[in-house]
Design brief:
This protein is of the alpha+beta class. The chain folds into three domains: 96 residues, Beta Barrel (OB fold (Dihydrolipoamide Acetyltransferase, E2P)); 64 residues, no CATH class; 207 residues, Chloramphenicol acetyltransferase-like domain (Chloramphenicol Acetyltransferase). It contains nine helices and 19 strands. Strands 10-19-18-17-13-16 form a six-stranded mixed beta sheet. Helix 2 crosses helix 4.
Length: 444
């Protein structure tokens, strides 16, 4: 008897995933625990294992489709057996890809007729599709029929999701519906094209620049775009800048590098790890936040939730976009333990192996562009967090006494709805003092 394999739950906060790559096709024979596809959440790429064995009878989603968790991905059974229906709202796909209709490989090579396509994806409009605004006498749609991201964006844009007829599974209101209702929906998704560009030189023809490439905004890039827009539109962000004396950081770092260069594996406790400036700043942040609970908090519209401990998020640049792993309980870790935790989390993020637990919500975030030579910048809040620290490069400038000293540049963005400028400035002042006296901070 045919069985349906569903998209498993990927953590409490994940409601849907985007199918990135199918690892099987209709007609393949699969076994339990075999990887059937790779999916992308709003934070990471994950492999989905098969929970049943047999011949693949149907695929209920195409690559690029967004599938809600616990909804059908594919069906397996005996060769020649009819695939079961996917069920109500199994995916955005109009019908399963089956051996009787077309194989996945053939479908991927065939051109898509946009005028007759029976489904609607992000960024596409389909002629003859249902209107986005509810016009019937049904009294509108309840707010919880909108996805969390759609609700958050709708709040920032002033759109009433109860008045929208969603284009998602089961009529669910998605981000694209909110964007369209707000007047921001694109007219249609242009195909990815690559045009030949003449070589630059004296013989290059004079004329307007030609399009070299058009990249669809999908996956993590799309999620980042939505969240950054929602963050800026839905919060009152203010950024404060201040330098911190970096002599203690550089001195400690130099001594660590000298110790690492020696053969210290025989010393008590083992070899000294290669502590970075970023590790030291993260350590100082975690310690300082314990004295400033107003910065270690979430703004929840009707309440402000403060935390006794520090779950420290830190931004990691990956090939697929920005990810923010979280060092849980950072306030209680030694500098060495914090270093190891950050290195392991960053490695999993860069290699696409981060788990939902690795990317759990933080209470405060640090983002560092100092390695790229940036002095000051304006970091964007990772809502609902009320603060984020941007770390810049180290530059030599005169201090209050006129001495030319190395200074590390700090940029603190706050949500002014939750935090006033004065307490934010006091936190930044205390952080700068803890960085300047880093060896004393280590004793805390």
């Amino acid at each position: 008897m045919a069985e349906i394999i569903v998209l498993p739950q990927q953590g409490n906060s994940v409601e849907s995933c985007i199918v990135q790559t199918w690892k099987v096709a209709v007609g393949d024979t699969i076994t339990v625990d075999q990887t059937i596809c790779e999916v992308e959440t709003d934070k990471a790429t994950l492999e989905v294992p098969a929970t049943a064995a047999g011949t693949v009878l149907a695929l209920y989603a195409e690559e690029g489709d967004e599938v809600p968790v616990m909804k059908a991905l594919l069906a397996v059974g005996e060769p020649g057996e009819a695939p079961p229906p996917a069920g109500d709202g199994a995916s955005d796909a109009p019908a399963a890809t089956t051996a009787a209709s077309s194989s996945r490989a053939a479908a991927s090579k065939a051109p898509v007729d946009q005028a007759s396509a029976g489904k609607q994806r992000d960024g596409e409009t389909v002629p003859g599709s249902a209107p986005l605004l509810a016009t019937g006498g049904g009294g509108g749609r309840r707010p919880h029929h909108a996805s969390p991201r759609a609700r958050k964006l709708a709040e920032g844009l002033g759109v009433d999701t109860a008045q929208l007829a969603g284009s998602g599974p089961g009529g669910r209101v998605l981000v694209r519906d909110v964007e369209a209702a707000a007047g921001g929906s694109p007219a249609g998704a242009a195909p990815r094209t690559t045009a030949a560009v003449p070589a630059m030189g004296k013989s290059a023809p004079v004329g307007p620049a030609q399009v070299s490439e058009e990249i669809p905004v999908t996956g993590i890039r799309k999620v980042i775009a939505e969240r950054m827009l929602a963050s800026l539109q839905g919060s009152a962000q203010l950024t404060l800048h201040a330098p911190a004396d970096a002599r203690a950081l550089l001195s400690y770092r130099a001594r660590v590098k000298e110790a690492v260069s020696r053969t210290d594996s025989a010393r008590p406790g083992g070899a000294i790890p290669s502590i970075s400036i970023n590790d030291m700043v993260n350590f100082a942040v975690a310690r300082t936040l314990q004295d400033y609970p107003e910065l270690n908090a979430h703004f929840l519209q009707t309440s402000i939730r403060r935390f006794a401990g520090v779950d420290l998020g830190f931004a990691v640049d990956t090939d697929k976009g920005l990810l923010v792993p979280t060092i849980q309980g950072a306030h209680g870790l030694s500098l060495v333990d914090l270093h190891h935790a950050a290195r392991e989390l960053a490695e999993r993020a860069r290699t696409g192996k981060a788990t939902p637990a690795d990317l759990a919500p933080a209470t405060f975030t640090v983002t560092n562009l100092g390695g790229l030579g940036i002095e000051y910048f304006t970091p964007v809040l990772n809502v609902p967090q009320v603060a984020i620290l941007g770390v810049g490069t180290i530059v030599y400038r005169p201090d209050a006494s006129g001495e030319n000293v190395p200074q590390i540049m700090l940029s603190l963005t706050i949500d002014h709805r939750a935090v006033d400028g004065a307490p934010a400035a006091r936190f930044l002042q205390a952080l700068a003092a803890n960085i300047a006296g880093f060896e004393l901070t280590l004793a805390r």
